[in-house]
Amino acid sequence: MLTGDDAALSLARLLCGRDNAAREIVLPRYLQYHGIAFSRHRFARPEGRGDSFAVELGEGERILVLCAHHDAVAGSPGANDNAAAVGILLHLISRLPPRIPRGWRVRLLFTAAEEIDYLGARAYVEEMPLDGIAGVLSLELCGIGDTVALWDAGETTPFLENVTASLESAGLARNTGYDVVGRIPLFGSDHRAFAAAGLPAYGFTMVPAVHADSLRRFVLSPMRSTFRSLIHRPPPFRTYHTSGDALGTLEPAALDLAAAALTAVVRGLGA
Ligand SMILES: [Zn+2]
User: Fold this and answer.
1) pLDDT of amino acid 105
2) Quick check: is 3 in a domain?
C-alpha cells in the first residue's frame, strides 16, 4: 500500500478500516516512506490524546490550511469520514507545489480526534502559532457526490469570495457545481476551531446534487432525532458514522472532483 499508485481513492485505503491507533501510525509512515517532510503536533487532554500531522507546501508567508482528520468513530471503517479526504490531500502533495502562487504556502493538516468534538484541531489552535493563516477549509465526506458544498458559511469573507471565484474559474457554477450553505447546527468539523479564533474557516464536502433538497432540509434541521434516524438520512449521511461507511461506497469521480476543486482554490489564491 505504501508503494501503490497515488490516486486519491487508492490512498484512502491507507486508513480505511483501521482503528485510530493504526491510522495514526500508518499516516506518518506513508509520509516518511515517500520522503515528505512533516511536523507532528502531539496533544493530550482529559478528553483524549492524539498526533496531528502537518505538511507545508510552498514558501510564502500567507497560508491556506487544508484540514482532513485522520481519525474515525469506533465501529466504522471511516471511508467517507474521513479516509477519502486524507487520500485527496495525500494525492495533492506532489501536484500542488507548482500551482501555489508566489507569497503563499499551503498547509495540509491531518488532525487527530476530530470525532471528539474536533479536539485535535482545538488543541492545535490553542497550542500552535496561527500567524499567516489566511483561510481554512476542512475536508469532510469528500468521497460521495458530484457537487462541492462549502458550509458554515454564514457571512461572506474575502477568503470565501476568493474560493468561490476559483471554483467558478474551474467551471463549477453556483447552485449546480457548488453550493454555499450557512451554519449547520448538528454537524461540525475542524474548521470551527479556527473560526473560533477569528479566522475565515469553512467546511468542504461533496454532496450528490440529486439529493440537494433533502440534504438541505436534513442538515439544517434542528431536530437531533432527524439526525439519528437512519431512514431519513439522504446520502452521504446514510453511511455516516455507521459500519456501512466502507471503501466500496466511495465514488472515484467524487474524489477527483474534490481534488480538482481544491487545486483551483490553490491556483486562485490571490496576491
Ligand atoms: Zn468527519
Assistant:
1) 98
2) no
Whether residue 198 lies inside any domain: the answer is yes
- Ligand 1 centroid to Cα of residue 268, in Å, is 26
pLDDT at 211 (0 to 100) = 82
Is it true that the peptide bond before 82 is cis, omega within 30 degrees of 0? yes
> Is residue 2 situated within a structural domain?
no
Q: If you ran DSSP here, which 8-state letter would residue 233 be given?
A: P
pLDDT reading at 154 higher than 90: no
Q: What does the pLDDT read at residue 187?
A: 80
Question: What pLDDT, on the 0 to 100 scale, is given for residue 239?
Answer: 84
The bridge status of strand 39-45 relative to strand 48-58 is: antiparallel
Residue 226 has pLDDT above 60, yes or no: no
* CA 128 to ligand 1 centroid distance, Å: 22
d(CA 180, CA 80): 20
Question: Which three cell numbers, joined as nine digits, stand for 10?
Answer: 487508492
Per-residue H/E/C for 156-199: CCHHHHHHHHHHHHCCCCECCCEEECCCCCCCCCCHHHHHHCCC
Ligand 1 mean position, distance from CA 185 (Å)? 15
pLDDT at site 184: 84
Supply 239's cell numbers.
Answer: 453511511
Q: Structural domain of residue 245, as residue ranges?
A: 8-270
CA of 49 to the centre of ligand 1 (A): 17
CATH of the domain at 121: 3.40.630.10
Q: Which three cell numbers stand for residue 211?
A: 439529493
Give the strand order in the sheet containing 201-207.
Answer: 39-45, 48-58, 104-111, 62-69, 133-139, 201-207, 147-151, 178-180
Work out the average pLDDT over 47-57: 97
Say how many domains are in the chain: 1
Residue 245 belongs to a domain: yes
